[in-house]
Write a structure and sequence with these properties.
alpha/beta, seven-stranded antiparallel beta sheet, five-stranded antiparallel beta sheet, 48 helices
Length: 973
């Protein structure tokens, strides 16, 4: 019988897993590529990916892996910075299904969780009882508890709360042979009882104590002195005589190389009720670090550093722009000092003591005091996003890399250590960003390195060795919270010494005699320069794109900007990524789609690869909301990437009828308005709706928009108002009659135009063109290009130079600012018009503040609670500040801006039969519950036509456009 080839062997393994497991299994090339990367500089393609639903699935996977002699790797959010979560063999993705909080016991202060539970998910549940999980990672909105256990994660609060190892009470695990065990503290009698078991578990309890005893001297002398360690196997814990024998804590930080946790009993700590923050402004990084000792004397909860590199990057992102408004001067570094507790008076006193101490010792030139949550929000948002912001500074394959970013020394030596660290970087010509936890001596310093350049790879290794020696000189640790992985495991023999390292190898042999669990991490690792991500990619073949991708590497470079930090996997804030929030499937995240596109664009014929049906399964649920453009720190613009990819798919397979229909929405809406009310009848006839479903895939479950015969254009043209004779001291403004509200909600445009005219503008209505937004969303880029050219040149030729162009539908208006530039990058008219686009809200706020519009305090909107949901495209391009400010001008109004993500409608997406359920799931995640929770008196407000449709469909509550409320509030003489 012939020896099975790898391909036939994988097929047999795939079939075996499909038979034995309840959870999904994927062996296709695209899924394997998505899981070949994490947030590190490494890439290793696995044989397949398993999404277990329960412990039995994990056992079956390990049993099959043993039979086929391949490794198994456990993975949470895949945010490892050192390469722990990439490897050959089978990947177990626990985040998709094994993500339940099984029990939370407030009296005991514990939680029993599955490994896929996200840290913020646990903290939300614990907060109801005044508790939280102590380790506070910056990735808390996507980091899983299983990943934190594998890594022994810490965070900004480790000065007070320690590391994950300090909060794990017990673990249910699957061992390398597929057997299960409960790891927990045991006394000597119980250890002996378990040691008698004729199982792998019994062997551990039987053989580990003599191994520890035989290596007592090496254990006592070989570990670094500094306490904050996420490196090696924690034999020092087993060697302690003052605590019970505890294998649960022992496997924490073992990176999935010893056992795979399927449940964890973790300790919770009291959640402080208040936090106050001092933000010191400094003229250099070293000056900021030197102020740490004075800060620690005031007993803070955390001391965090951020350098100018990250500050400058934050100023370039709408998401973080508010930080620049509260800083003083132009600091080279900031030091965030947090005080937490229950007594605000005591906390403020600590804050003032720090301010006085810094002033007395000449530390810094200004100290900002942030006491309320509102004052702190911009600070905390940027601080938690430091990694992503730093990653955004990369260009092409020159990226800020994690290979010396996790060292830690005693804070007393940190300033001197940092000076010498920077000297090594300068010696080798490397720039770097500096941020991290000064309170515990840990700085995340990420040098910019181009791994596609072999010389730079050599420099990287040299620097890694120099820094390893430097940190050893100071008695520090090479891995203080990000683990060993592929980046640092190679150096463990040198760090720990031969005897202790061999003891660790013996530990691995006891737990995993066949080297099946995540091999090559911690012990017996490859060189840190193997399996690098960027050199593994072949040169990109030439591809002519319809849209412009103004980054190094063109379209592939735009997709490959993703460094897999996983912010698109968050689920409780912002809008990115709505489809991932609905499915919890990696391929439905921005990261998953970007990686899939990288794979396609790395094929010998990328044009053909972009037509691949599997690729378009991955892209299918992208709502093109553009949230990733602003919320992804690296600015991965998946909406633009998908539009380009769809155009190539059409080249290969033709344009579907439904895409042509939605791409012609302006014509169809104009026709529907012209024939209304007869045109509204098909939407009410079930037979016709079923026919639309069958022929076009337009779901009968969603109501169609109702056309208005007296549309905005008719009203404007037939109005008896004397437009040409109305005094217009403000000049001329052009109102863009969009493809939607013009024909279905003309009252919105009427309100806007009347308000503009009242405030002194001469309003001209432009209704002769389409921005091309609908065509672009369906991949009809050539059609969108033609529409963009016509509209831009029409506006340039018929509007006064420099005059503003406004509108009420964000998706149409923002297309003039963004996509037109990508379609027609060298067109002067497009550039001119893009620069003249204003939100109508901006002009109205200016008019109200100047007294040209006066609002009544007796009109019905006055004094009302206004619940505002912003449009995704508006958030991505300009933010919602102008709209919020306009609503605040309504006398006595209480304006509440929802953080409810994308509504889920996304134009045509919510009308499409196969997408309807996902659309409603997205809406039901946060938006619908928030609206339903409001009393009848609350006024719901939304700027987007799709948002208003979705809100009514999901909650039966009408939503107003802001200009309608201002028109209702207008004071008339």
């Amino acid at each position: 019988m012939p020896t099975p080839t790898p391909k036939t062997k994988d097929h047999a393994l795939h079939q075996r897993l499909l038979k034995d497991l309840e959870g999904p299994v994927a062996f296709d090339d695209y899924t394997r590529h998505l899981f070949s990367r994490d947030a590190s500089m490494y890439s290793i393609t696995p044989r397949g990916v398993v999404f277990p639903r329960h412990t039995a699935d994990v056992q079956a996977t390990l049993t099959a892996a043993a039979d086929f002699n391949i490794p198994v790797l456990a993975r949470g959010a895949g945010t490892s910075l050192a390469g722990q979560t990439v490897g050959p063999g089978l990947v177990l993705d626990f985040s998709r299904h094994m993500n339940r909080i099984i029990d939370l016991d407030p009296e005991a202060g514990t939680a029993l969780v599955e490994p896929g539970v996200v840290q913020d998910q646990l903290n939300r549940a614990a907060a109801e009882h005044g508790l939280m999980f102590g380790p506070d990672t910056s990735t808390s909105n996507r980091a899983t508890i299983g990943g934190m256990i594998g890594n022994n994660s810490a965070g900004s609060g480790s000065l007070r709360y320690g590391m994950t190892i300090d909060h794990v009470r017990a673990l249910d695990v699957v061992l390398s042979d597929g057997s299960t065990a409960r790891l927990e503290p045991v006394d000597e009698a119980e250890r002996k009882r378990r040691a008698d078991l004729p199982t792998l578990e019994g062997r551990l309890y039987r053989d580990l104590p003599p191994l520890v005893h035989a290596n007592a001297a090496a254990i006592a002398e070989g570990f670094p002195d500094f306490w904050r360690r996420a490196c090696g196997y924690r034999l020092d814990r087993l060697a302690r005589t003052d605590t019970p024998f505890d294998l649960a804590k022992f496997v924490v930080g073992s990176e999935g190389t010893l056992a795979i946790a399927t449940r964890a009993l973790v300790d919770l700590v009291p959640k402080p009720r208040r936090t106050v923050i001092a933000v010191g402004h400094f003229t250099s990084v070293v000056a900021a670090i030197e102020a740490t000792e004075s800060a620690l004397a005031c007993h803070p909860a955390a001391v965090e550093l951020m350098d100018r590199t990250i500050l400058d990057l934050s100023r370039q992102k709408i998401e973080y722009a508010s930080l620049g408004e509260i800083l003083q001067g132009d600091p080279e570094a900031l030091l965030f000092v947090s005080f937490t507790g229950d007594d605000e008076t005591e906390l403020i006193d600590q804050l003032r003591q720090l301010t006085t101490s810094w002033k007395r010792h000449g530390h810094g030139y200004h100290t900002l005091q942030a006491i309320t949550p509102q004052q702190q929000s911009a600070l905390l948002k940027v601080r938690k996003s430091s990694l992503g912001l730093l990653m955004a500074a990369g260009e092409g394959t020159r990226r800020p890399l994690a290979f010396v970013e996790d060292t830690a020394v005693d804070p007393l030596h940190l300033a001197e250590y940092t000076r010498r660290f920077k000297g090594i970087l300068d010696e080798h010509g490397l720039d770097a960003g500096f941020y991290g936890h000064c309170s515990v001596g840990c700085l995340h310093i990420r040098p910019f390195v181009d791994l596609a350049d072999p010389h730079q790879v050599t420099v990287m290794r040299t620097v890694a060795e120099r820094i390893k020696d430097l940190v050893t000189e100071y008695g520090g640790v090479n891995s203080s919270e990000h683990g060993d992985g592929l980046a640092r495991s190679e150096f463990n023999r040198e760090i720990f010494g031969d005897d202790l390292y061999e003891a660790m190898r013996a530990v691995k042999g006891l737990f995993d005699p066949h080297d099946r669990l995540n091999p090559g991490k911690i012990v017996d690792a490859p060189a840190m320069t193997e399996n690098l991500r960027d050199p593994a990619l072949p040169p990109a073949a030439e591809l002519r794109t319809r849209l412009t991708f103004d980054v190094v590497g063109g379209m592939r470079g735009a997709a490959d900007r993703c460094m897999n930090i996983g912010l698109c996997r968050k689920s409780d804030t912002g809008a990115m990524c709505p489809s991932y929030m609905a499915t919890r499937n990696e391929q439905d995240s921005t990261r998953g789609r970007a990686n899939a596109l990288v794979k396609a664009l790395s094929e010998p014929d990328p044009r053909k690869a972009l037509g691949d049906e599997r690729l378009h399964e991955v892209l299918d649920l992208c709502l093109m909301c553009k949230a990733c453009k602003s919320e992804c720190p690296l600015g991965v613009d998946m909406a633009t990437l998908k539009a380009e990819a769809l155009s190539h798919h059409h080249d290969e397979h033709g344009i579907p009828l439904r895409s042509r229909v939605f791409g012609s929405i302006r014509f169809l809406n104009r026709l529907g308005s012209a024939t209304a009310p007869l045109s509204n009848l098909p939407g009410r006839i079930p037979l016709l709706r079923r026919l639309m479903d069958r022929l076009l895939g337009i779901t009968p479950a969603r109501p169609l928009p109702r056309f208005e015969h007296r549309n905005l254009v008719r009203w404007f043209n037939r109005s008896k108002r004397k437009h040409t004779h109305t005094p217009a001291p403000q000049g001329t403004v052009t109102y863009l009659a969009d493809s939607f509200t013009t024909y279905t909600e003309p009252s919105i445009g009427r309100a806007a135009i009347e308000l503009l005219e009242t405030s002194g503008w001469n309003v001209r209505l432009e209704s002769r063109g389409c921005c091309g937004r609908s065509s672009l969303s369906k991949g009809l880029v050539d059609d969108a290009n033609e529409k963009a050219f016509k509209l831009a040149h029409l506006l340039a030729e018929t509007t006064p130079a420099g005059s503003p162009i406004v509108g009420c539908e964000p998706s149409c208006l923002m297309t003039l600012r963004d996509e037109h530039l990508a379609m027609l990058p060298g067109d002067k008219a497009v550039k001119d018009i893009s620069g003249r686009v204003r939100q109508v809200e901006e002009l109205l706020v200016e008019a109200i503040d100047a007294g040209r519009l006066r609002l009544s305090d007796t009109a019905w909107p006055a004094g009302r609670r206004l619940l505002y949901h912003g449009h995704c495209h508006q958030k991505a391009e300009v933010g919602t500040a102008a709209t919020v400010e306009l609503l605040k001008r309504i006398p006595g109004a209480e304006v509440v801006e929802l953080d409810a993500g994308c509504c889920g409608m996304a134009g045509s997406f919510g009308f499409e039969s196969e997408h309807y359920d996902v659309s409603m799931t997205v809406g039901d995640d946060r938006l619908f519950p928030a609206v339903r929770a409001e009393p009848e008196e609350t006024v719901i407000v939304a700027t987007g036509v799709s948002c208003r449709q979705q809100i009514f469909h999901g909650t039966q509550r009408d939503a107003w456009h802001p200009v309608q409320l201002i028109r209702e509030s207008l004071l008339t003489d």
